[in-house]
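To fix ideas, we reproduce below a protein record of this kind.
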Amino acid sequence: MRSKRIRGLYAVTPETLDSDWLYARAKAVVAGGARMVQYRSKGVDARCRRQQAGRLAELCGAEGALLIINDDVALARELSADGVHLGREDMPVADARTALGSRALIGVSCYDSLARAREAQSEGADYVAFGSFFPSGVKPGAVRAPLELLHAARVVIDLPVVAIGGITPENGRAVVEAGADALAVISSLFYVPDSYLTAQAFTAMFEAPDEPPSITSDR
């Protein structure tokens, strides 16, 4: 039942020391339809991380969105976040489950590896993430994953599949059609003129697949 909540636009926060800017952008993307927000910050100090993540926890709680903390199980537990996302070098799934409890959502980065996804599923993960599917400014050296990987994952993995890496309003529908349950987006969601409208465009890929996304506005 936990895994059924993972679908649609999955906003991943960029690195920034400007907490007010981050909160405003996150508020816009949630209003535009993001169902999940992952707080991802590798370069700020612990106090700033706690402050930023705390504000996002309040926002997500008020708006009914899920808050996932990247990498930091202790912070996720402190904030009573909805879950944690783990990479290759992070805590094992079983240890995160022990720390956070049975109701927590635990996601695992699987890059371009079906074998890692199968392992994550056997360990009790709630979703797996593949990518980068396109060139990414956030991780320019990231391993590239083909869209065919999403089709293959549908056959061997009985978990929601999240796609990440260079996803935009222009290429996102192809990723959904290839089998992604959710699109994890950073730059093309936060570093745009209107994050609210862009979030709506991504959300439309799940709600109205026969209509092309639009990011124009009459406002």
